[in-house]
Each structure stands twice: as structure tokens, then as C-alpha cells.
Amino acid sequence: MSIACIAIIDSQDKLNFIDYYIENEDQVHFKFQTYTALQLISPILQKKLNGGTSTEPYLGVLYTIYLPNNDYDVHAYITITQLKMIIFIKQGTEKLNLLAIFEKIYGLYRASNYNPFHQTNLNKLIKPMVIEFNGI
Asked: What is the pLDDT of residues 4-53, one digit of tens each?
């Protein structure tokens, strides 16, 4: 599995965190695609709530983006506090438990943002996890 980008958006749809973990793609594409994915999350969530189906936090693959060098699946996760997380994963790689990845990122986000005594940058917390998942 190759994680290319992770984005975290707050409940007011403001981009709180974005970081890129690949070298060979234009990072601007991922930022634009983050906003595109954000536009798709709200209707999917409303459909799940109105349809009476499960309100799982993991929304699955929203869509696939096709860039010149690689194709990426866009996965989304939404917390009870409406915090949205989007991960871009390179297609053609083995799948891991994405729910566990999202939950770990959410735990790291809570540790860095909600604890006034924790002074570590979120990027410093997430980067080792991404390196581990990417097998670098």
C-alpha cells in the first residue's frame, strides 16, 4: 500500500492538515482533489443517514483520480465531531485495514490538537506511521 497524501478537514470544512508522501506527482493535484472529495462526503453521509443504513465512519472509496504517473483511490473517514479525513492511496497496491489507519490518524490528531500539554507537530506524529505503512 502506498499512501500518497493525507488531509484532515474540520467541521467547518476548513483544511487543517495536508501532507504529501510521494515525490513524483504534482502536489497541487492532491490539494484540489481534497476539495473535490469534500464536496462528495456530505451527500454520501446524508444518504447513509436518510436511508437508515449504517453510520460507519469509514465512507470507503469515493472515486479514483488518474494522474500522469499513477492512479489513486480517494478514501474518506468522518468522525462523530464531523472531522473529515481523506487519504489518497496508489492503485495496484495490496490493501490493508484502512479503518485501522484512519483510527490511528484520528488518535494522533486528538493527541496533538486536544491535549494542551502535547507540543508535537502533527506531521511529526503521522510521518513515521506512513513510512511504516508504505514500507519505506
From this structure: 999 999 988 899 899 998 877 778 889 999 999 999 988 877 777 677 66
Where does residue 84 rank: exposed (0-12), middle (13-18), buried (19+ CB within 10 A)?
buried
Contact present, 134 and 2 (Cβ < 8 Å):
yes
Phi-psi region of 122 (alpha: psi -120 to 50; beta: other; left: phi over 0): alpha
pLDDT at 119: 66
Q: Which of 3, 22, 23, 17 is nearest to 132 (CA)?
A: 3
> In this structure, what DSSP letter does residue 12 have?
T
Helix (H) or strand (E) holding 64, with range, is: strand 58-66
pLDDT in tens, 59-77: 888 999 988 888 999 999 9
Radius of gyration of the chain from its Cα atoms, rounded to whole angstroms: 15
The amino acid at 86: I
